[in-house]
């Protein structure tokens, strides 16, 4: 399955830190341990040792952890050298491991080996990266549930149900005269319906999980001085201040990350994209347009007291039709109006004050609703686009199965087989090498 050639990487992030870790995996790492510390330490115990270079000089003194195969993350021998967290020391340790015959690990190679040796299925391995990349606490908890196998267990339960149904069907194929009777007796169609319902539930959950992972892209538009920046600050402040500002390619900050009930929202302030004061022209410029086009929804800020001005109208007209929009009528404090939500066709209005904070809660609820968040977050697991595509494919196959049965049992059996195959790609039973490459190459080095 894999050759177990030794690989090594610095597993802690680059820079200074209290502790830095060099990680090794390979079929047999005992020669490395003997060369580095003069002995093979007891597996699964923390061993304080001096780590030496080829000349016997001490590179660092630290903790060595040895996990002997197969009781390790990768299923192979794994060694962690925990030294001081300075890049020079860590590079010397890494260099020593390479001298001893290891090669540099590729991104995600440890996790890939864990997958190939059956320690993790593919959905679990993906959740390792998702846990590391999680941008909110809720996203991290979901990734953890996936890593612990909750998503995979649901997928496997569906696969098992499909297997039974397929076995039943294929057995019937050998007795063509009685086939339909036989299937009815075995409640084949009832089973199919139950599997479809279960799959629909799983898909709905997976969509929520994918939202936690990806977040929603929001484009913020509006004339100057209507209160866009104030609103952004307010949204950021209402949360536990998990706001990271990523400087754009221009001088301005154009992206903010705001969390609402654990769901990440990536807000692009299109006003920050260009200095011009001409709002109509501004939204016409290329980068703002692209931001708007990539968005899942648009937040159009207007000023309550001014109503919807011709300039506001012009901005609204330029938004792509497909794009859901929320019109914020800001500064209600000046008009002495109470906060409110008004729905009109595809447009929803929220009346609020960025200054006092009144009505901001309503906007948050509306943003969650528009993003498709229906969950309480309880018991969710992390899912990716790839998983949604596979679940959708399986759903379509199962929808086609019952009509296919009336045309011939072979066709029924074939739809079941294809649904099963789609589900199997999630956990990675039969996975093409290039897909594995794609998935694991996005991991960090050392994971
Ligand atoms: P932007 O140009 O759209 O980003 O608008 P700013 O957020 O910079 O706000 C423009 C001005 O309007 C500032 O003086 C804000 O203090 C003020 N402002 C923003 N929101 C409100 C609000 O809800 N009520 C009141 N009274 N003033 C506001
Ligand atoms: Zn602004």
TrEMBL record:
Cofactor: K(+)
Subcellular location(s) of the protein: Cytoplasm
SUPFAM superfamilies: P-loop containing nucleoside triphosphate hydrolases
Pfam family, one: MMR_HSR1
Superkingdom assignment: Bacteria
Keywords: Cytoplasm, GTP-binding, Hydrolase, Magnesium, Metal-binding, Nucleotide-binding, Potassium, tRNA processing
Positions bound to K(+): 225, 244, 246, 249
Gene Ontology annotations of biological process type: tRNA methylation; tRNA wobble uridine modification
PROSITE patterns per the UniProt record, alphabetical: G_TRME
Record protein name field: tRNA modification GTPase MnmE
Gene: mnmE
GO cellular component annotations of the record: cytosol
Binding site for Mg(2+): 229, 250
Oligomeric form and interacting partners: Homodimer. Heterotetramer of two MnmE and two MnmG subunits.
Family: Belongs to the TRAFAC class TrmE-Era-EngA-EngB-Septin-like GTPase superfamily. TrmE GTPase family.
Entry's cofactor comment: Binds 1 potassium ion per subunit.
Functional description taken from the UniProt entry: Exhibits a very high intrinsic GTPase hydrolysis rate. Involved in the addition of a carboxymethylaminomethyl (cmnm) group at the wobble position (U34) of certain tRNAs, forming tRNA-cmnm(5)s(2)U34.
Single GO molecular function: metal ion binding
Residues binding GTP, per UniProt: 225-230, 244-250, 269-272
Gene3D superfamilies: P-loop containing nucleotide triphosphate hydrolases (3.40.50.300), Probable tRNA modification gtpase trme, domain 1 (3.30.1360.120), tRNA modification GTPase MnmE domain 2 (1.20.120.430)
TrmE-type G domain span: 215-372
Binding positions for (6S)-5-formyl-5,6,7,8-tetrahydrofolate per the UniProt entry: 23, 80, 119, 447
EC id: 3.6.-.-
